[in-house]
Design brief:
Aspartate Aminotransferase, domain 2; 14 helices; Aspartate Aminotransferase, domain 1; about 15% strand; 4-stranded antiparallel beta sheet; alpha/beta; globular; 2 domains; 7-stranded mixed beta sheet
């Protein structure tokens, strides 16, 4: 029995739509029953706010909430007070813009990122640089969509205050050699703040923030079988202690007086207001679920699926179909963003939808990368451990049939 066959029963949506082929897990993954049940359990058995009440329900909710923080810290090998909860990767990065970005970057400094970033890790830094009158530098990619490591040093200088980089591209699926990249940046300037977007890494790769030595790392629960509206920002304790909060309100206060206010220690000073309590409590169930499967098993299954997918697409679609990053020298996770002259990805996705096949079409919030390759858009099929070889075969046949309508 394959991994997917064994685990598909854990996902109610797959039972509700037995004809569906879900190949859009890069956008958001499906949710197992244990996560759905954990959300329901909060509202039916707890329901109270956290950190405020001294009655039993509130204390139980607080304990369940803080358990997730401990689970996340263990999951990424961080200290528990280095884990902040947000609404997602986008909010995590924007939190950094308005805290350490505002404090650190001055006129004449440099802020750098890469051409393969999701807009959420590109536009915020671009806008910060514009606002601060700092230079905005972009590390390019080579013909295989890999980061051009030979030119990595060119945009980065001793006055580069911050470097933001994705761990895994949401377009090519390329897994960047993130530890090597960070070592290279540190060699140029050991004081450069390094921010890692791990949104597309956490579903597929075990993360160790201590080993890679980043300053900050952000990811979202919904990419890894968790709820939507829940994100994590890891930050080194030394940075968090010097950062001022950017959002003010309840639960992040130490003392308030007419003259001034003081704030709690990290991470709580960055978590103003009532959070997505049920989602954060449920998030730990998705982490436990993935750990129980093991990333080794996920990787093995995804590699098999990708081998079948690439082989079938080559056989059925021929050389006219191009896959972004197909010839990368780096490992890739289970996704393929494709394009072919004479067809439009939106048309292909619409035809596939008629066959109950779910894929993403467009620029995938990565316009600079598509423009670099002179591609207006691409069709992205992204797979996960609950997908089967039969689904891959079905997709390849349907995609090649749709493509023949245009070329």
């Amino acid at each position: 029995m394959s991994l997917a066959t064994e685990l598909r029963k854990d996902f109610p949506i797959l039972s509700n739509y037995p004809d569906m082929v879900y190949f859009d897990s890069t956008a958001t993954s499906l949710k197992p029953r244990v996560v759905i049940d954990a959300i329901s359990h909060y509202y039916t058995h707890l329901g109270a706010n956290i950190h405020r009440g001294i009655y039993d329900l509130s204390e139980a909710a607080t304990e369940a909430f803080e358990e997730t923080r401990a689970v996340v810290a263990d999951f990424i090998n961080a200290n528990v007070n280095e884990v902040l909860f947000t609404r997602g990767t986008t909010e995590s990065i924007n939190l950094l813009i308005h805290t350490i970005g505002e404090q650190l970057v001055q006129e004449g400094d440099e802020v750098a990122t890469t051409l393969m970033e999701h807009h959420a890790n590109f536009v915020p830094w671009q806008q910060l640089a514009l606002r601060k009158k700092a230079a905005f530098k972009v590390v390019t990619v080579d013909e295989n969509a890999d980061l051009d490591m030979s030119s990595l040093k060119a945009p980065l200088q001793k006055k580069t205050k911050l470097f933001a980089c994705t761990y895994v591209s949401n377009v090519s699926g390329i897994v960047n050699p993130i530890a090597d990249i960070i070592k290279t940046v540190r060699a140029i300037n050991p004081h450069t703040i390094i921010v890692i977007d791990a949104a597309q890494a956490v579903p597929h790769i075990s993360i160790d923030v201590a080993a890679i030595d980043c300053d900050f790392l952000a990811f979202s629960a919904h990419k890894m079988c968790g709820p939507t509206g829940v994100g994590v920002l890891y930050g080194k304790k030394s940075h968090l202690q010097t950062m001022q909060p950017f959002m003010f309100g309840g639960d992040m206060i130490a003392q308030v007086a007419i003259e001034q206010s003081t704030f709690q220690e990290p991470p709580y000073r960055f978590e103003a207001g009532t959070p997505h309590i049920s989602g954060i409590i449920a998030f730990k169930e998705s982490i436990k679920y993935l750990n129980n499967i093991t990333y080794k098993a996920i990787k093995k299954h995804e590699e098999m699926l990708m081998q079948v997918l690439i082989s079938e697409l080559r056989k059925q679609c021929g050389a006219s179909l191009k896959i972004i990053g197909q010839h990368s020298v780096n490992p890739r996770v289970a996704l393929a963003a494709m394009y072919a002259e004479g067809s439009h990805p939106h048309d292909l996705a619409d035809i596939l939808n008629a066959d109950h096949i779910c894929v993403r079409a467009g620029h995938h919030c990565a316009m600079p990368l598509h423009k670099h390759f002179n591609i207006p858009a691409s069709t992205r099929a992204s797979l996960y451990f609950y997908n089967t070889e039969d689904e891959v075969q079905r997709f390849a046949a349907a995609f090649s049939k749709a493509l023949r309508m245009f070329i």
